[in-house]
Design goal:
Strand content: 15-25%
Bound molecules: adenosine-5'-diphosphate, magnesium ion
Order of helices and strands: HEEEHEHEEEHHHEHEHHEHEEE
Shape: globular
Oligomer: single chain
Number of helices: 10
Number of strands: 13
Radius of gyration: 21 Å
Length: 352
């Protein structure tokens, strides 16, 4: 549990800002031909190659978005990059460049920040993205990480949130609710550890959901699969705040309603098992948990045959007219209105 325990500690102050930047960005090779100039000049230079450019930023604040008592810095780096890649995938694009801004307090050693960058670089390697710049500054308390991603898509490829239509099918990739159950387990073990530092964390059999929380992936593979079978989603979003809140974005944006069937919601057995241990309804983890970074998208009914045998994609319901509202249908025939209680960082008074 002690992610911050340093083996060796070198002070960043000995290197200075430029030394640190050089240490973190040395040996970076550019992979995309659109990345003309990366780290080193006043700005990166990116060729738009006659495509549309997609840009998205996420700012992560220690204690609000991540907890270093159970988040290894390498995982944190990986996740901060990947959640940005996911936003580009959700537009049906390909992430190509990122810039990374960090603010660090003197609590962090050079080794710690190097670990963070190892994670960022690993994500960049896996998704073939170039780290082309950033900013490095000090903070009085805590760690701040701001990642901006730039992606691209052909002009007719971009998929928006507000373009779904009545009768279209609602699909989701992978399984849902796991990241939230992973978070609950980590929070539980943190409390146990606080009460008794000699207790070993009990994480047996939990690997899957812990990985869902600590090391999520962006579903670029799903974007490629859909393209390969000739489906362009009619709308798409990535599930960062929970299915409830993200389907609401599509419905509200597109001015339609939806009907989702709870028995079609994809869940991993470990998610279901852990939810039962915590005595919560696994559907709640799916609807309101968040951070699964799966893709939620709509397709035309006539595309059903193309998608029905693709493994890892579930059809969970369909779009209705706006006046029918947004509902979950249970196997015993009950209809429950969908309300977003998901993660709204600004509205919430405490984290989930
Ligand atoms: P300036 O003073 O012009 O803002 P900096 O000294 O902040 O320049 O940055 C020098 C170069 O290093 C720039 O190319 C910048 O994009 C890059 N850089 C700075 N900090 C980081 C970082 N944390 N990660 C990646 N690149 C960085
Ligand atoms: Mg700067």
């Amino acid at each position: 549990m002690q992610a911050m325990e340093d083996k060796k500690r070198s002070e960043i102050s000995e290197l200075g800002e430029f030394g640190l930047i050089d240490h973190l960005t040395r040996n970076i090779k550019l992979r995309n031909k659109s990345s003309l100039v990366g780290v080193g000049d006043d700005a990166a230079v990116i060729d738009h190659e006659n495509k549309l450019k997609l840009v998205s930023t996420d700012l992560l604040v220690e204690g609000v978005h991540f907890d270093l008592s159970y988040t290894p810095l390498k995982h944190l780096g990986y996740k901060s990059a990947v959640v940005n890649f996911s936003d580009i995938c959700a537009m049906n694009g390909k992430p190509e460049q990122i810039t990374v801004g960090i603010a660090i307090s003197n609590r962090f050693s050079l080794e710690a920040i190097t670990e963070l960058y190892e994670g960022i670089k690993l994500a960049c390697e896996k998704y073939q993205v170039d780290l082309v710049g950033g900013d490095t500054t000090s903070s009085l308390s805590g760690l701040f990480i701001s990642v901006t991603v730039i992606g691209s898509a052909e002009k007719d490829e971009v998929v928006y949130r507000n373009t779904a239509k009545e009768y279209e099918l609602i699909c989701v990739s992978g399984d849902l609710g796991g990241a939230y159950m992973g978070l609950l387990v980590l929070e539980r073990e943190k409390q146990v550890f606080k009460a008794n530092p000699d207790m070993q964390p009990d994480l047996k059999g939990m690997d899957y959901i812990l990985e869902r929380q600590l090391k999520p992936e962006a579903r670029q593979d799903v974007v490629n699969t859909l393209r390969g079978i000739g489906i362009k989603p009619t709308s798409m979003i990535d599930i960062s705040d929970g299915l409830a809140s993200d389907i609401m974005h599509i419905c509200k944006g597109s001015d339609i309603g939806c009907l989702i069937f709870t028995d079609k919601l994809p869940m991993d057995p470990v998610t279901i098992q852990t939810a039962s241990e915590f005595q919560i309804d696994p559907n709640t983890a799916v609807m309101n948990g968040g951070e699964d970074y799966e893709l939620l998208f709509t397709i035309r009914q006539e595309d059903y045959d193309k998608i029905k045998d693709i493994s890892g994609i579930s059809v969970i319901g369909h779009m209705t007219d706006a006046s029918s509202g947004m509902y979950l249908s249970t196997p015993d025939g009950k209809a429950v209105e969908i309300k977003a209680q998901g993660w709204d960082g600004l509205k919430k008074t405490e984290s989930p």
